[in-house]
Specification:
Helices cover 78% and strands 0% of the residues. With 301 residues, it is mainly α. Mean pLDDT is 77; it is low at 97-105.
Length: 301
């Protein structure tokens, strides 16, 4: 349905699109600014320009393909997991980059920065395209205007983020948290999983903590003492264990709740859920300590 120019419906839809852009385009500006923060000043300008161009190009393509993309099984799941990887990449300290080949530090080259930005835009642009498409009520002109309005918001927002990171480095943590939350929200909306999460609402809390703990690992690893570093592995592992027990209970049609348990198998399942991870954690800590002790003589030599 096309709306008449300057009609009340057109103006109200345009106003809604501006608000949507202010809220959702900010995510893209945040990511572009964080990715470009370690680049030389002249390269930052190019990354902001081409990153913004890439964001708009990706959204323009997605605006026409989004209906088909969302029908692909597993698309939201894959996108959510991709955002976790990007969050870890953004938060990895520069000094760890040489030792960590799987997840590199914030981009230090134009090509690397642009690649990260385009991937993030492709994943995070889904919500923006859906929101603008809904507000536009089928008007191609409004969709085009919505994409055009995104440009100055992303450009100015990216420059603001770079200045803020220079002054307050902890702003990087906000970017990782935004990505973690967006990744979680995409996974729980995945059509293959949405009904399961609806039946097991308590698992959403476990899942969101899991997404945040995995995404923010590089940030808090750099700030933990040697004695508390095992938490980096133990916390996500325990959360995965709890989710695994919930999945097993649904497959075996058992109630994973002590108060609702009626069969011996359900009581056993509850014991496994809350206590089963303890011997595994103890064994892992013992093995980790032994490996550290073996490396120490080599380090002294």
């Amino acid at each position: 349905m096309e709306l008449d120019l300057l009609s009340a419906g057109f103006v109200s839809a345009l106003f809604a699109i501006v608000l949507i852009d202010l809220v959702l385009a900010g995510d893209n500006a945040l990511i572009i600014g964080l990715v470009a923060r370690n680049l030389p000043k002249n390269t930052q300008r190019k990354v902001i320009f081409w990153g913004t161009f890439g964001a708009i190009a990706v959204r323009a393509v997605m605006a026409t393909l989004v209906v088909y993309i969302l029908d692909l099984p597993g698309f939201m799941l894959a996108g959510g997991l991709a955002l976790v990887w990007i969050a870890r990449k953004l938060l990895t300290p520069e000094e760890d980059a040489a030792a960590n080949h799987a997840i590199k530090a914030p981009a230090t080259s134009f090509a690397g920065a642009l690649r990260t930005i385009v991937v993030a835009d492709a994943v995070m642009g889904v919500d923006n395209v859906l929101a603008i498409g809904g507000a536009a009520t089928g008007s191609i002109l409004l969709i085009v205007l919505g994409l055009a309005i995104s440009v100055p918001i992303i450009v100015w927002g990216s420059q603001l983020v770079i200045r803020l990171v220079d002054r307050f480095p902890s702003v990087v943590l906000l970017g990782g948290a935004v990505l973690a939350w967006t990744g979680y929200s995409m996974v729980v909306r995945e059509p293959l999983l949405a009904s399961w999460f609806a039946i097991h609402p308590s698992t959403k809390l476990v899942a969101v903590i899991l997404f945040f703990s995995i995404s923010l690992v590089p940030w808090y690893t750099a700030r933990l003492s040697a004695e508390t570093k095992p938490l980096v592995t133990l916390l996500p592992a325990v959360l995965v264990w709890l989710l695994g027990v919930e999945i097993a209970a649904s497959v075996w049609k058992l109630k994973a709740d002590y108060l609702l348990a009626t069969r011996s198998g359900e009581y056993i399942l509850e014991a496994v859920r809350w206590l089963g991870w303890l011997p595994l954690a103890a064994a892992w800590l013992w093995l980790r300590e032994r490996l550290i002790q073996r490396r120490q003589p080599v380090a002294r030599g």
